[in-house]
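User: My advisor asked me to double-check a structure prediction for CDP-alcohol phosphatidyltransferase before group meeting. I don't want to rely on an old file, so could you generate it fresh from this sequence?
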Amino acid sequence: MHVLAAALVVGALLLPNTAPGLRPDRFTRIPAEAIVGAVLLLALPRRPRIVVAALYGAGIGVLTVLNLLDIGFTEYLGRGFNVVLDWGLLDDARSYLADSMGSTAATAAAVGAVVLALLLVTVTALATVRLGDLLARHRVRATRGALIAGTAWVACAALGVQVSGTPVASDRAAGALKGQTRRVVDTLRDEAAFAKEARTDAFGATPPDLLVPDLRGKDVVFAFIESYGRTAVEDPLIAPGVTRTLDARTAALARAGYHARSGWLTSATYGGSSWLGHSTALSGLWIDNQQRYRTVTSGDRLTLTGAFRKTGAWDTVGVMPGVQKAWPEARWYGLDKVYDAFDLGYRGPKFSWSTMPDQYALEAFQRLEHGRERDRPLMSEIILTSSHQPWAPLPELVDWDELGDGSVFGAIEKAGRKTSDVIADSTESRREYGRAIAYSVAGLTQWLERYGTDDTVLVFLGDHQPIARVSGDRASRDVPVSVVAKDPEVLEKIDAWNWTEGLRPAQDAPVWKMSSFRDRFLTAYGSTPRPTKG
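Assistant: Sure, here is a fresh prediction for CDP-alcohol phosphatidyltransferase from the sequence you gave:
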């Protein structure tokens, strides 16, 4: 038992906080924290020793839980866990599992995670108390051993001794604690600074008649394709199917009179938290965490979609098939009306997390808003969700005239792949991800070809790259963005952007931060800056 206790405590102290770091050589090091802990326990009388050992062990357990959360967040979101901001995302993770694997599996996973966390803290505390008692019973030999270990650690640190490129002397736990503390401090400092930044707006005081004058009379659609990242266009396994679709749809649109320009935007998020990408692109601010999102959406920052509403020259509508609860952000986005998952009349099956196929959502948008007669043009924000992970089962395109209430998708969903067959397999995830992106792009551009007019302008982009299991450990955060229109003057306005012709951006096409898109778009289409100061 003593050996197991020692292995648990030392293993926890050496545990990396990234998946690639989980290698055997990382657990053959000398942890400084174990030596310091041993010296401290040896110096204390029995009762204080037990209390300190329990607290020290519990602290190691908490740090282990945070390291495991870091591993999970890095794998899915490309960043570590933030103890100030990210607790709410755990509930989103549970909801995602419920939609993907079923409520029973989600509940079991949530209960299992809580039990595991409590068990880790309890067991490491008990193990440390046991080791403290062992040290006290063999005080002389333990003191000698601590001295030898300390000397070895100092020598290895001073000489830079390494095994397989890994330093033998470790202060991994102290470094992890320091990193978590730094995140907390940086988060608290960022809150006030960002609130001031959000109040400074180059177009905040622009009069309505000076906003997007060059798009007056146009029906403008801003569409976000879930997880549509650079990986879809450049990964050797994924890209062939996606680029084939992009090229085929470019040609089909050209035959219908539409032309496109495409470039790259660097998203503020990665792997998930799509709302951070949406708000970054439309607000002109870098919104890379939940605190920034709450701050900006509770204010009156002018969004790109809100600029159209402010003019009074457009009706504004949002199509949000992924929204299944109250969404007060609609006011901030400047949307007169929002259609959520329950407003689009869908009666077919869900496709894992996605409440309905993109093709149906687009047809419902046509039926409910875009195809209606109106006395002024329409500005729309549409979020397409069929390419949301786990990419199984996937919908397929059907005849647009057969969509009905969506029941036609029942047989397709039943014949599709099971989530469990794809979600844990990197190669299969990549293949199915590519199919999902091709489906979403084809559906959106077919909608434009079928229902667009001479005055339709479509802007579509990805919100973020897919998770690391698909995009890779060192993937960029770039996403494609395209502007499509039949009126040549619409594309002439962005000639200075030097974007690639067609729907597929060239590898060397310009790359902008996503937060720059709002101001560049407003400027290109004639808006006059009138700043507000923070």
